[in-house]
Amino acid sequence: MSQVSFDAAELAGRFALGLRGDGSARVRGVGTLARAQAGQLAFLANPKYRSQLADSHASVVVMREEDADGFSGTALIAKDPYVAFAKLAALFEPRPLRTPGIHPSSVIDDSAQVDASAYIGPHASIGARSRIEAGAVIGAGCVIGEDCVVGSASELVARVTLVARVRLGQRVVVHPGAVIGAAGFGLAMEAGHWLNVPQLGGVVIGNDCEIGANTCIDRGAIDDTVLEEDVRLDNQIQIGHNVHIGAHTAMAGCSAVAGSARIGRYCLIGGGAGVLGHLEVCDKVVVTAMSLVTSSIREPGEYSSGTPLMDNRSWRKNAARFKQLDALTRRVNAADKES
Amino acid sequence: MSQVSFDAAELAGRFALGLRGDGSARVRGVGTLARAQAGQLAFLANPKYRSQLADSHASVVVMREEDADGFSGTALIAKDPYVAFAKLAALFEPRPLRTPGIHPSSVIDDSAQVDASAYIGPHASIGARSRIEAGAVIGAGCVIGEDCVVGSASELVARVTLVARVRLGQRVVVHPGAVIGAAGFGLAMEAGHWLNVPQLGGVVIGNDCEIGANTCIDRGAIDDTVLEEDVRLDNQIQIGHNVHIGAHTAMAGCSAVAGSARIGRYCLIGGGAGVLGHLEVCDKVVVTAMSLVTSSIREPGEYSSGTPLMDNRSWRKNAARFKQLDALTRRVNAADKES
Amino acid sequence: MSQVSFDAAELAGRFALGLRGDGSARVRGVGTLARAQAGQLAFLANPKYRSQLADSHASVVVMREEDADGFSGTALIAKDPYVAFAKLAALFEPRPLRTPGIHPSSVIDDSAQVDASAYIGPHASIGARSRIEAGAVIGAGCVIGEDCVVGSASELVARVTLVARVRLGQRVVVHPGAVIGAAGFGLAMEAGHWLNVPQLGGVVIGNDCEIGANTCIDRGAIDDTVLEEDVRLDNQIQIGHNVHIGAHTAMAGCSAVAGSARIGRYCLIGGGAGVLGHLEVCDKVVVTAMSLVTSSIREPGEYSSGTPLMDNRSWRKNAARFKQLDALTRRVNAADKES
Q1: Among A57, B302, C114, C260, which is disulfide-ready with C312 (CB 3.0 to 4.6 Å)?
Q2: Pick the CATH number of C6-90 from 3.30.450.20, 3.40.1390.10, 3.20.20.70, 1.10.10.10
Q3: CA atoms within 13 A on the CB side of C285
Q4: Which of the listed CATH numbers 3.40.50.740, 3.30.470.30, 2.160.10.10, 2.120.10.30 matches domain C101-303?
Q5: Catalytic residue among A175, A241, A244, A248
Q6: CA–CA separation, B17 vs B6, rounded Å?
Q7: Per the CB < 8 Å rule, is B30 touching A200?
Q8: Cβ separation of B159 and A164 shorter than 8 Å?
Q9: Tell me: the pLDDT tens digits for B141-168?
Q10: Using one digit for the tens of pLDDT, what is the confidence trace for C31-65?
Q11: Which of B1, B103, B308 is facing A294, going by the closest CB pair?
């Protein structure tokens, strides 16, 4: 890896940031405010960490204008230092070399189409009638089944499975172990045995979506499962068949949405939270971690369920009383009536 | 893909369904009642959707006899329209071509046996003493370790791992990313360090089971982990070592059963629900989503834990009071005694 | 598989155990106390199973001294019979043969280093500048990206992904489907769209750690995600970026730790439990199954959240009252003041 480096003035110019201090201060990597060394770029976004500024060894720090007053080092001034940092840090991100072409160990069906500018890694396989568009990256060990599309500049990092009828838009990133387009969990009981309901739909994933490691998105039963553009899914998530997720919604790790539920735009679903099947959640809803959505949500806002963490002894006492809560309430109601 | 099509009379005959309307009405695919187009077959099972019937463009609709009165279109009459639909829809399911044979990129141990009618896909590997029976499908990227059996007509869709001593019955379907037969989580503490307890058992999976994407089933410590016939596991499920699951039980996504627990027959375990280790759950138990089973269940019925979803402000107030619930109950008890 | 066998005196000598009964009693495998057959070794650790001792057909039983009084069979005496059993059972564990060398179907980058005593299985790939140390085992279908290290005697069982900048210590075991070093979930919102925050850190995993099947450990944003030595993670776990887990901590299946949280040493995290981001959990904390840690824990001990399991009818009544718990408490408080 050749090591890139930039000076502060260059960075200010490239990203239209303000500059305070020494424009020739040179950085060749990033660090946290507390642990950065000379030659590194750090950022201050959360006021909580302001006290770390004076002692930081970072050569350049991205911050808000108001934080720069009295700072003796070199600062890049941004309205949103976290956004600015995200862009700056990308300059230092090591990107594995992906020369366009098809690795000889991969197996491509005769009816599949692979753009000449795409990269197909070792031990990948691509099934009938699937199409890999310009600049797409199919990492090592990916399995793409039948009738799939990987849009231009999308990347399947490694060991991703697109089972069947999965259409990814442009610039979609899918992390290792994710499984998209497996048959949804559709069962009918007949004479004491389960009967599989065929899952004839597909999955449609909009531009700029990100799908985390080991996350699953099942294909639809009849219509498709849909993620609109810029949906961000963390790791270990389960999305059932025929779910519809609105644009710009982000879901944290281990959350799950059961079949046919509809989540709005700009929602934030906390880690381990669940949404039951066939519900509707409107735009701009926040569900806190490990909460369970059991009925549709029609008003934007923050929603929660669960009980607070306690030492186990206290918890046991209170939890036992939860079993009597209805009875307790009735007794208090009755006493009120009497008095 | 050649496109299949059938007329209503043909379908009625094949599946012993009643027919109302035009027996020559032709369908070449399926749709939902609300969105089906001409040439598609739809179904009406849930009375909730009855109002969609009049406006549906479906050419043929499967329904109960009582729903057909006054319906002007073509109907197939079934006692259980969902079961009938499942069978009808299977006619239209695109099935990838799996010509029997072993893909040249796969790696088969000399001591493994593969039936001549089985299909072994690209980049699959099969370990020592394992056996693949007639008509089985081993999809791309599957890893089968030592001493495994894949029963006849079973299918590992793609990228499935059978680690060691895993025996699948007939017609078992395993979805991508599932890991069956990994070493169970058995630890003993010795002098401040963890010591692994060897996991010498295997996994036995009965006929007609289905294992979801990225689901894990660990192998037993001494005896085997067992799923009886027709057990249906959704995605992202965790089954610990030496668990025993009775026939026809279905578990929804992200649920988990800890080591040595025993689940009965015909149980339904909701999404994200958990069962602690060494417990017994009898037949015909329903556990609702995200509930935790903390003691054995001896009576069939429906069981739940958790609290309802609220707006976060209300939730915070009520949740804080949960910490005082025992004290509150004691105060009310004391007041009752006084009065 | 050649079948190994040992007599009781030989086992007593090898593991410094006491011997009662017939030193020539021969075992060639293990069984549970209840189901062992002649020729098998069993153990009695939990007093709950003491009643099974008299009827056991095991040829040799490992037990505490006090349990051996009156036992007519052959006993191996250990202070901790479970620890002794773990060591004894390892003698009977079938280990797949892993002759050192690189399988011809694997793909190794020119700049990667593979020790001559390492094993690289079928369809594995190893990226630029990665290093596989002495005696390491890289199972079938593993994908190792750039700048990774697999320490000596470590094993990636099969289909493991190390994405980038992942350094495993010695004797680390990683089970199938695990994904280590994927980009953490770092997002900044700019003008209504999500912007990815580059994840430039790596993952450092100490000696003797174990990582379960389908578990994910994301790489750090700037600094590394760290597991100290002898951390034991079960299956389906999610570890966010920049998490730090202390030595000898064990986490059960489906648990999750959000970004930048810090877990102490010798903690036990129950199945499905969660720890929110940026929190600190001190040493020797036990979190029970499916509990959510919402603030830092500074005292060792056992912690819980949630409500007990009830039949659904009772649960509905009590859960509905939870929504009125704050109001109820206020009413009781007010009544107390009045009286």
Answers
A1: B302
A2: 3.40.1390.10
A3: 25
A4: 2.160.10.10
A5: A241
A6: 14
A7: yes
A8: no
A9: 999 999 999 999 999 999 999 999 999 9
A10: 999 999 999 999 999 988 999 999 999 999 999 99
A11: B308
